Each structure stands twice: as structure tokens, then as C-alpha cells.
């Protein structure tokens, strides 16, 4: 299902999966930070899938996500995982290779 | 996901990812941990805050408790000390770490403490040991008890030593004081000469007796199961009620000041007197649970008291006897005196008669002969020889004097006609011998109420007083009064003569000088009368004599005086008395 959505909707755009733990502080910050980064650094099509581990954690296990908040950049390849509340914008941008976009 | 061959870039990305992850964790940007069995919220901030709080609380506690708390490394070197430790030893935290502590242990305790630590390190077992630790500030050694325990890891290796040192100095001192006080108390109890015991009222048995109590009762400590019932059986039946009353007061909470005295049959069967003080001991409900008592054997005291009582009675009896004896002797003595006076009167009368009848007669005869002779021998008298007329004159004087003496000695009027007449007679004689002196007389008594003895005494006093007036006063008036009033019979003789020094006269007036003042005084005292003489040089002299009329020498009392009937004496008896004396 994921696979299909991934391939269907985003051909050359960005696909993120954000794993959060309900409304825990770091998770909430992570959401806000991701939104901000998306607005400032991503011009192309971008899809964000937010997964609350408190509702379902099987996907997290599937993706080897053992800590939240965690952001997986599924595409473009190669996929990258960033843990934390994403407040260190520079580090996040570096990790997500978004600097090259600019 | 990468398939097989991890490129250098991929590896680097992984490393960066791991680094980021660690940083996120370190920065506490993590919310939850996802495990196979569920999701765990981490809430690290809260946890850290809680941890900090917990540690702060623990630290506060450690520093607040008034004990030294410390930790040491597995090898025994010191690591951490709480505030109390640092303060007591006067060290800071840095110096405490790895500090050598043996120097602050009292030299006497040091070897044992070092040995205990050595053994703990060797065996891994904790220890508990008392020691004196020197105060870093004052240098004072205070008693502490130190307790050390090891903390081990899962493998059983010792990772830390934990210790506490508690100041027990005051407790130790108090304990010492209590022990000393108890020793003192015990010594007192053990060596007291009074019996001290305790009875448990719930079991009714003696639970304690000191050696004195054993000695007093004859029962041994081993026989402590002597029950109060048996003890009560041994009470003297007459004392049972009073003892029960006393014990009831004590168990009711009273503390009577007086003890109780009772007789108790000691082990050998003898009844002994005891004096006890008892007090009750109460439990928390206020019920008397025990009686403590102090017993003293007062048998000897009781016996002494009894014998004293007997002696006292005996003494009183003896005193009474002696008093009666003395009174009887006094009466006899007075009787004897009276008899003596009587005998003297009798002698005087006899002597007077002799003087008058015999010597007087002879002198008169000699005078007559000499007068006759003088008619013939008027001339031829050699010089230096007294003329006969002069001798006859002398003889006449001598006859006169012998008559006076004879009169004086005799109180014929007294015997024949009573005191009133005797006074008149004495006055008449006085006038005859001293015609130049005028006499006033006032007599107002009833003769029959006056005893013969009193009459005699008064008469002699009058005679002596008049004699003194005539011989020594050089006055020309004398007043005599003899009256009767409540005080008795009062005789008063006063003159207007030259007077004299009474004290001087009394001193010089010896008993051999006839009827002097002392003689008058003594006579009166025999009759329990009062003699008084008052003389003012140049003005005159007053002699007074009072004899109480109700004097004990009444006729009723006389028979007590002795076997001999008193007055009047027959002539023969008077003669006997005279010869006997």
C-alpha cells in the first residue's frame, strides 16, 4: 500500500514518513519543524505521512524505527532516517540533502 | 534500503545517522521507545527532574541526619562524607577523599578498629564497633558506634562500603551515670542495716530481699517464694488489724509519714518487733502491683523503752517514798525542836527556882550577916580595904541581878495565866528594872486559840526584845502590841532609842550569846513564823514577829509526828528530856 502510494503519487517528488508518539512535546515540535522545512526548503511536490506509534507501531517496527520522533525520507533514494525533534535545521537539511536543492 | 554492497557514502550516511541519533538522545529530543512488546514513553525531562529531585532529597537527608555517613572504595579508602562527617572532622570534601582516618580514633580503640576494618576487607562482611573519635575542632574524643556494610554488584563483587558513625557519647555517659548510680544504690541496699524488700502483689510473693532483710526475718533469698499469706500468718494476732489498715492506706496510694510497728514471728519462732515503712508501686492503670518496704528491728528499742518505763515508775515510787520519809523526818525534827524548847523552858524554871530559893536566900542571909557585922567594925579599917558598906551595896546589887535573872528565866505567868497575863507580867518586870522607860501596851488576842508553843516563842521574843531595849537602846519609850489577824498572831516591839546596824548585829550574834536576835529568828522559823527587825540609827528599832495561826502544827496532825505523844509533857518526862539532852 505504501509502496503503491509512493510510486503512484510521487514520481520525482519527496515522500516523508514522520513517526510520532501522540502529542508528546518532541513529536509536536517535530511536526512543526517538518512543516517549516517543507515550506522553506522544498519547492517540488512533497508528501508527508504522519504515523502515530501510539495508535499503531507495527509499521515502525517494519521500518526499524525504535525511537520517536523519527523522520524517514523515503524518496528520493537513498532513504534517510533522522531522529529527534528536527529543531537543528541545518543538520536536518544536510541529512536530507536539501541543500543541493537550493 | 541498500541491497548488498554498502558504498562509502552509504556508510558515511549511516554513521551520520547514528551520530544524529545519539545527539537526539543526549539532547533529550526523544519521546518514546518502540519495542517489540509496545511503546514506552520516555519523558526524559520529567525523569531527569525527578531524578534530580530524588537525589537532592537524598542528599538533604544524608546531610540532615545527625550521624556521620560516609562511603569508601572497595579497598577501604574514603570516598564521600556527609556534612556532619566533614563538620565533625573539620575537613572539606576534597580532603576527605582518600583521607587517612586512623589518626582520629582514640589510641586505646585504634587497634581494635583497624583490626575490624581489616577483617571486613578480608571477609567482605560488615562490622559494628564502638570507638572514640576526635572532634576536629575541639579535639574532644566522643564515643561513637560505627556500622559499616558492603554494597555488591550482581556478580557479588563489593563495589562500595557504606558506613555510619553515631554519636553515643551522651548516652554512654548517661549509661555510665546510671550504672554508677545503680551501683551506689545497690551498695546502699546490700549494706543497709535496715531490711529492704519488694512484694509482687499479683503473685503475692516476695521478689526481693536484701541481706539485712534476710538477717531480720531469718529467711534466705532462696526462700523467696515465701508468700504474703505465710508472712501474714506470722504476724502477731494483736497487730494484724493495724497492719492491715496501714497496708490498705498504702495500696490506696497514700504515703503515711509514720511507719507501722508490729510483732512478727521470725524463722526461729521468736516474735520480734519491727517498724516498717511501705510504699506501693502502681502500673499505668493506677493499680498497685507491688509493695516496697523498709523494715527495722526495734525489739531492743522496745525492750529498752519498757525497762526505761519500769525504771521511771520505780524512780517515781522511790522519790515518793523519800519525800514521805523526809516529811516524816522533818516533822520529827520539828517535834524534837519543840521538845527541846520545852525542856529548855523547864530547865530555866528549875534554874530560876534554884537561883531564887537557894542562891537568893543565901545571898540575903550573907547580906544580913554582913549588915550586923558592920555595926561592930565601923572603925579601924586599914587603907586599901573595901569598907563593909560598899560590900553590902555590891551584894544588894547582886541580889537584885539574881532576881532579875530568875524572873527572866521563869515565865510563871505564861504557864499559869496565858499569854495576855504573861505580857503584862513581862512589862511589869521591865518597868521594875528600867523605871525610866515608859511603856505602851496593846494586847488584843484570844488566848485559847494560841498553842502553848506559840505562846512560849512569842513570850521569849518579847522578853528578849524588851531586854535589848532596856540594856542597849538608851531610849525612854517602848511600844508593845500583840494582835491577831488573818496572817496569824503579830507581835511588835518598838522603841525610840539609838538604833543599830542590823546586819552587823546579826553577824556577830552567835548562838552562844544567849537570846540574841538570831535566837529569836530561829525560834520563829521553827514555828514557821516570820521574824523581822528594822532599825534606824538615831531613830529607834522595830522588832516584829508573826506566827501563822493555821500553821500545820495543829493538834490533828501531831499524832503523825512519831510514837511519843507531844504536849503537854509531865514533869517527869521533862526531867528525862533534860537528862537525855
Number of strands of chain A: 5
Helix content of chain B: 40-55%
| Approximate helicity band of chain A | 25-40%
Largest interface: A-B, 31 and 25 residues
Structural class of chain A: alpha+beta
Radius of gyration of chain A: 13 Å
Overall mean pLDDT score of chain A? 82
**Spans of chain A of 5+ residues with little confidence (pLDDT < 50)?**
1-10
β-strand amount of chain B: 15-25%
What key phrases describe this protein's structure?
heterodimer; A: 102 residues; alpha+beta; 4 helices; 5 strands; disordered N terminus; B: 581 residues; disordered C terminus
Topology:
The complex is a heterodimer of chains A (102) and B (581).
Chain A: H1 2-9, E1 14-20, H2 25-41, E2 46-52, H3 58-62, E3 67-68, E4 70-75, E5 80-83, H4 89-95
Parallel strand pairs in A: 1-2
Antiparallel strand pairs in A: 1-4, 4-5
Chain B: H1 8-26, E1 32-35, E2 38-41, H2 44-64, E3 68-72, E4 78-81, H3 83-89, H4 93-96, H5 110-123, E5 127-134, E6 141-152, E7 158-167, H6 169-191, E8 195-200, E9 205-209, H7 211-217, H8 228-233, H9 240-251, E10 260-265, E11 271-282, E12 288-297, H10 299-376, H11 388-409, H12 412-433, E13 438-444, H13 452-473, E14 477-485, E15 488-495, H14 502-508, H15 517-526, E16 530-536, E17 540-547, H16 571-580
Parallel strand pairs in B: 13-14
Antiparallel strand pairs in B: 1-2, 3-4, 3-7, 5-6, 6-7, 8-9, 8-12, 10-11, 11-12, 14-15, 15-17, 16-17
Helix pairs in contact in B: 10-11, 10-16, 12-13, 13-15
Amino acid at each position: 500500500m505504501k509502496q503503491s502510494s509512493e510510486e503512484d503519487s510521487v514520481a520525482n517528488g519527496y515522500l516523508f514518513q514522520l513517526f510520532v508518539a501522540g502529542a508528546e512535546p518532541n513529536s509536536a515540535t517535530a511536526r512543526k519543524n517538518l512543516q517549516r522545512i517543507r515550506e522553506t526548503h522544498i519547492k517540488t511536490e512533497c508528501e508527508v505521512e504522519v504515523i502515530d506509534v501510539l495508535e499503531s507501531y507495527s509499521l515502525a517496527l517494519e521500518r526499524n524505527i525504535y525511537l520517536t520522533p523519527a523522520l524517514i525520507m523515503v524518496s528520493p533514494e537513498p532513504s534517510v532516517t533522522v531522529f529527534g525533534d528536527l529543531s537543528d535545521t541545518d543538520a536536518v537539511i544536510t541529512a536530507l540533502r536539501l541543500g543541493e536543492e537550493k | 534500503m541498500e541491497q548488498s554492497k554498502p558504498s562509502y557514502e552509504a556508510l558515511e550516511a549511516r554513521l551520520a545517522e547514528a551520530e544524529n541519533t545519539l545527539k537526539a538522545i543526549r539532547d533529550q529530543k526523544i519521546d518514546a521507545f518502540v519495542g517489540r512488546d509496545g511503546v514506552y514513553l520516555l519523558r526524559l525531562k520529567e525523569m531527569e527532574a525527578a531524578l534530580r529531585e530524588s537525589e537532592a532529597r537524598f542528599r538533604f537527608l544524608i546531610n540532615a541526619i545527625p550521624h556521620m555517613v560516609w562511603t569508601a572504595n572497595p579497598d577501604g579508602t574514603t570516598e564521600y562524607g556527609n556534612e556532619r562527617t566533614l563538620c565533625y572532622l573539620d575537613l572539606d570534601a576534597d580532603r576527605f577523599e582518600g583521607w587517612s582516618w586512623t589518626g582520629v580514633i582514640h589510641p586505646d580503640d585504634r587497634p581494635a578498629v583497624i583490626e575490624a576494618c581489616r577483617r571486613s576487607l578480608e571477609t567482605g562482611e560488615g562490622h559494628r564497633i564502638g570507638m572514640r573519635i576526635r572532634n576536629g575542632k575541639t579535639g574532644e574524643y566522643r564515643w561513637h558506634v560505627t556500622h559499616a556494610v558492603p554494597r555488591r554488584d550482581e556478580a557479588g563483587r563489593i563495589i562500595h562500603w557504606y558506613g555510619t558513625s553515631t554519636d553515643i557519647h551522651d548516652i554512654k555517659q548517661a549509661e555510665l551515670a546510671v550504672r554508677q548510680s545503680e551501683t551506689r544504690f545497690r551498695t546502699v541496699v546490700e549494706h543497709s542495716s535496715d531490711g529492704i524488700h519488694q512484694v509482687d502483689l499479683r503473685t503475692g510473693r516476695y521478689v526481693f530481699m536484701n541481706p539485712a532483710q534476710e538477717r531480720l526475718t531469718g529467711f534466705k533469698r532462696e526462700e523467696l517464694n515465701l508468700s504474703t499469706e505465710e508472712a501474714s500468718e506470722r504476724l502477731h494476732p494483736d497487730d494484724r488489724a493495724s497492719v492491715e489498715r496501714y497496708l490498705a492506706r498504702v495500696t490506696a496510694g497514700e504515703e503515711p509519714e509514720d511507719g507501722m510497728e508490729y510483732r512478727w514471728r521470725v524463722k526461729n519462732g521468736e516474735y520480734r518487733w519491727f517498724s516498717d515503712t511501705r510504699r506501693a508501686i502502681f502500673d499505668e492503670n493506677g493499680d498497685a502491683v507491688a509493695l516496697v518496704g523498709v523494715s527495722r528491728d526495734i525489739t531492743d528499742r522496745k525492750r529498752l523503752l519498757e525497762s526505761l518505763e519500769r525504771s521511771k515508775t520505780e524512780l517515781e515510787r522511790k522519790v515518793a517514798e523519800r519525800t514521805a520519809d523526809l516529811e516524816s523526818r522533818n516533822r520529827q525534827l520539828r517535834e524534837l525542836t519543840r521538845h527541846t524548847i520545852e525542856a529548855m523552858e523547864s530547865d530555866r524554871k528549875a534554874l530560876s527556882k534554884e537561883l531564887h530559893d537557894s542562891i537568893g536566900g543565901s545571898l540575903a542571909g550573907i547580906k544580913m550577916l554582913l549588915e550586923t557585922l558592920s555595926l561592930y567594925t565601923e572603925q579601924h579599917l586599914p587603907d586599901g580595904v573595901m569598907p563593909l558598906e560598899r560590900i553590902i551595896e555590891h551584894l544588894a546589887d547582886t541580889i537584885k541581878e539574881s532576881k532579875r535573872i530568875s524572873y527572866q528565866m521563869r515565865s510563871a505567868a505564861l504557864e499559869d495565866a496565858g499569854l495576855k497575863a504573861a505580857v503584862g507580867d513581862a512589862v511589869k518586870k521591865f518597868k521594875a528594872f528600867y523605871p525610866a522607860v515608859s511603856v505602851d501596851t496593846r494586847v488584843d488576842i484570844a488566848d485559847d486559840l494560841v498553842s502553848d508553843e506559840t505562846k512560849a516563842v512569842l513570850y521569849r521574843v518579847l522578853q528578849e526584845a524588851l531586854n535589848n531595849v532596856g540594856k542597849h537602846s538608851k531610849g525612854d519609850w517602848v511600844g508593845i502590841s500583840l494582835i491577831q489577824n488573818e496572817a496569824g498572831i503579830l507581835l511588835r516591839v518598838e522603841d525610840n532609842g539609838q538604833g543599830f546596824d542590823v546586819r552587823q548585829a546579826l553577824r556577830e550574834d552567835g548562838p552562844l550569846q544567849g537570846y540574841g536576835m538570831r535566837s529569836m529568828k530561829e525560834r520563829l522559823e521553827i514555828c514557821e513564823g516570820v521574824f523581822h527587825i528594822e532599825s534606824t540609827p538615831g531613830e529607834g528599832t522595830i522588832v516584829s514577829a508573826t506566827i501563822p495561826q493555821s500553821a500545820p502544827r495543829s493538834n490533828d496532825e501531831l499524832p503523825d509526828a512519831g510514837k511519843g505523844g507531844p504536849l503537854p509533857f509531865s514533869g517527869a518526862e521533862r526531867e528525862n528530856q533534860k537528862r537525855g539532852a
